[in-house]
Structure prediction request, 402 residues.
Amino acid sequence: MQISVLSGKGGTGKTTIATNLAVIMGGYYVDCDVEEPNGFIFLKPNISKSKDVSIPTPQIDYTKCTLCKKCVQVCQFNALGIAGNQVVVFEKLCHGCGACLLACPDGAISEKERAIGKIDAGQSGELKCLQGVLNVGEPMAGPIIRDLKEMVKEESSLIDCSPGSSCNVVKAISGAHYAILVTEPTAFGLHDLKIAVELVRKLKLPFGLIINRGNDDNRMIIDYCEKEKIRLLGVIPFDRRVAEIYSRGNLLIEDEHYREIFEELAENIREVVRCS
Amino acid sequence: MKVCVSSSGKEKSSNVDFRFGRCSYFAIYDSENAEFKALENAGIASAQGAGIAAAQQVVDEKVDAVITGNMGPNAMNLLKAAGIKIFGAAGGTVEGAIKLFQENKLESIEKPAPAHSGMGNQKRGW
Prediction:
């Protein structure tokens, strides 16, 4: 059972919601925002294991290569070029699909693994924690997200996604059983929420909404929810105390008032997940 | 000697396109036989690696030099591996750029522009 937390707009509080809920609901917390994972700042797990994530990239054996160019032609990602008497491999453009290997009639291509990032595993109290970390300068996050999802499969897990509605988000929410959308009551929040709603509907994923930094403007989000028949799971109020706890790197549920709010949220989520 | 100019159109009178990887056409002039032709840039629609696809096309045409505005790091790597020289044009027409090149008045480009600088306000792939 995977529950994904996404937002559309960045900075609405995905990680705040995902980390606090994960502690209350148990199972796994999985940080799939691999370009900038930050959930571990709040959960502070003891990292007990790390492993590299790599993708296979082509290596040319010039004793066999005839410069026939079939590898260049088959590559959908323009990761190969032939110039002079060499095959130039642009590793960062390579998706590791292996098409060049299959296309080469002379068996001149072999694959070597190239690390693009890592996965850290640890424990925070009862909660199992995973985070993906993409190496700086690497363009492709997909393989790390795929490996993270593969590690939790059917386990109860809260998946913390990257902002937006890019490939990385699609990968992180694919195969989830439920999605929690997090927004804020601003015009930007609403605008990007609509894009996120379009995405989860396209993937036929049941979902509900949490308003973070709720204030007098909540109405604009609530009106939209009513019109679109979207379930509102709860509201976290706009409160200086939240900013204080957050900026110390602590979890909101360490505060009794917020623990109650998150326990109620968790109860709502358990109920809708049971029904959907 | 064969020289290739990144061009916004198919004619000698077309303007030089400052982008390399995502220019519209490659205008190719062969000084041996004074032959001129324009090819569509096959790399222009690539979701990624447009510069590499464009450079491969130019390499395959066996040109000796390329004249453009900016060139990204990947395209430059491939052209350099093929021993093709790269020159910068300040503007004007394809014909004008070729003339300046023949008079040795163009400066060679040694450093690549930042990746994706030719994408302008086009919609990104994602």
